[in-house]
Amino acid sequence: MKPFRKYWAFARVACGEARSHRGELYARGLFFALILAVFAALWRAVGEAGLPLAARPERLVWYLAVTEWVLLSAPLRHLEIQEDVRRGDVACQLCRPVAYPRALLAQCLGMLVVRASFLGVVAFSAAALYTRELPAWSALVLVVPFGLLAALVLAELYLILGLVAFWLRDATPLYWVCGKLTFILGGLMLPLELYPRWLQVLAACTPFPSLLAGPAGFLLHGATHVGALALHLVFWALALFGILEFVFWRATRVLQLSGG
Amino acid sequence: MNAPVIELSGLTKTFRARRARSSGTFARLKDFVAPITEHVLAVDRVSFEITAGERVAFIGPNGAGKSTTLKVLSGILHPDAGHVSVLGFVPWQQRQALGYRIGTVFGQRSQLWHHLPARDTFELLGSVYELPRAQHRERLQALTRAFDLGPLLDKPVSQLSLGERMRAEVAASLLHRPQILFLDEPSIGLDVAAKSVLRDLLQRQSEQEGTTLLLTSHDTGDIERVCQRAIVVHGGRVVWDGSLQQLRRNYLGEKRVRLWSEREHLRFALPGVRVLSESPHFTQLAVQVNVTAVGAVVEHALRQGALSDLTIEDAPLDEVIEAFYRDTRTRQAS
Amino acid sequence: MKTLAIARFCWALFRTNLRSVTALRGSFLLSMTFMALNNTTFFVFWWLLFGRIGSLRGWHVQDVELLFGISAAGFGLMQATLGGAMHLARFVDDGSLEPMMVQPKPTLLYALGCRSQASGFGDMASGFVFMILSGYVSWSDAPRALLCVLVSCVAFTAVCVALGSLAFWIKKSETLSRQLLDIVITFSLYPEPLFDGGLKLLLFTLVPAGFVSYLPAEVVRGAGPVALCLMLGGCALLCAASLRVFRAGLRRYAGGSRFGVFG
Hints:
heterotrimer, B: six-stranded mixed sheet, C: mainly alpha, disordered C terminus
């Protein structure tokens, strides 16, 4: 029980931290609302043209509300970690009786809870306002837990990217690529069904579709893929956690050998 | 008597700071929605004058208002009240004009470009201060010699040691022959040897070119080795202003006497004399000179046996300042 | 005389900057290439969408390419030459602004010109490629296109300065101003006809994407002198406003405290 209390404390501190950056959170909410406005306009224009898309324009706005909610709620802390690694602050973490990757993950969880609840309200009200319709409650009930889990997996991925700074001098280009892969392969703006066949196959081999298109997909085609998505997310959560631990273990070796 | 180059009277500056409510979920929620801000008085009616060529130490504990005053003097901060004149300029109104005539070294902040050799920064500074090419070259050569920068100029700054970087840093701020040099914690983080080199350079620079120095430091070594005068601030106020010697005499009429004796142990049962440390054939004493004269102490020792050596020194400045703060606090309490 | 000294200073700053950003050659090339790649990936969305629908309220994929090209080139030019603009909030926060303030050159100019971002060169390159790809830019109207990129760059810089100056009032606002900038960038990349009414008003005032990309794109596509004047006047107004904000902020500057290095 005791170790859990430790990480619980980390999560709580991060909660407070996320709350204290009010301005940032409000700006995020504003950004979110505006992005949804842009896309509501875009899909309306597409709809006017009577052009063939997989779903009605309103549905696509709700789809985006969910994908962006996951993306904006996930605490992406790679830059902080990179900075910590560069300054050598990570070395200080090593002598504490805490597993650094787990403490990071606990912090992510704390931040995630604060952000997701605020942004969730923003997403819901903005999407309802722009589309003047609500999706089925059964779909929304599924979106919340799966979305939260997806955001946590996304946070894991970026924790790993942050630790890569142990080997690369500047890993920023890597972040861009990863960000754009999330964007394209995750189906941030367009449902994957609209992609060419080869791109769909490629996407299916990565964790990205289950992170964004997965939870948002409940709004487009109901609860058809609950089992598959749960399996995918749990698999990726565990796999990435394993990789995180491994990368950190390798990184400490580097640190011990080169002295930071 | 030279004319003052820095004059300030009644300088006052407050900052706004955010204060958290007491704990509890509701209080936290209130902090989130509407935080409380309060005003903190950083500098409180500070007045002093500095004449050309003086070397002045600005001493005080953390948060005493040293850096704030320095920032007002160099034009970075606007004060809330008070009159300030630096070389005849009002710093915050004529910041750029003043910029040509002063130099600054912030120990915690670098003006050298990190990835480039220092030479590149010197070149850039040449056009910042509009130095003619020939003059720039000549000055750079002189500084290179004085600060022993020869081998460092063409190495990227990121590869210099802190001591080397600081030397380059000070040289950079002297490039345009400033009349006043402000230094905020110049020796922070340096090792003993590097500190010593830096102090000698500062003192020599000031003596040779008549540069006025105003430096803040926590390191009493900086102050003792470089400065002639000290201004002590505490809680935003000047609590003492005078020569270093006076500071020592007024605030700790104490001398350090070290004795190396033939006898294994010496005994001192004199009023105003404390034994600080003792080992076979060696005794270190703190002597309150207004109670017992140093001569009487030495005489007392000689009566117990021959001495192989003795030294008499002033108490270290650290202790002077500590005693000073103690004194101020008790006075404030009463 | 004074102007000459400032011009000489700008040139020296730019040269030092360029040296600094290319000092780590591998990192420079990597950042540049990846940024160009990054932009191309972003555009996949439009190619996919237009692949399905042909045109959108009269806009074709070429129009979006032009818009995107101008935005990317303008933003890239800013990042490459006035790269400090993106870091202004941090400079204020950690006190890096102070060494610039005590030197006898305009503080804002110093702060803007003291950084150059390698990725900016990648943005610029991809921006020009997209502009050419759109088919709207031929040799004869290259000068006009360049002017438009320049205006976009200046407008972006003005936006950055205004947003970065928030740090004078709000502590730790770097992420905040970055996010607000993201809003402007985002709007500058979507076809203008999508927006109407209140949203359009917003795009020429509070979120000045209109001056950053829409008007320059109109001018490149051959709009008349009215659009040209509107573009130049709007940009000038934007600059004046952001300069005011910065000056007001500098007056109430309360000092930052943290370790910081140049370059």
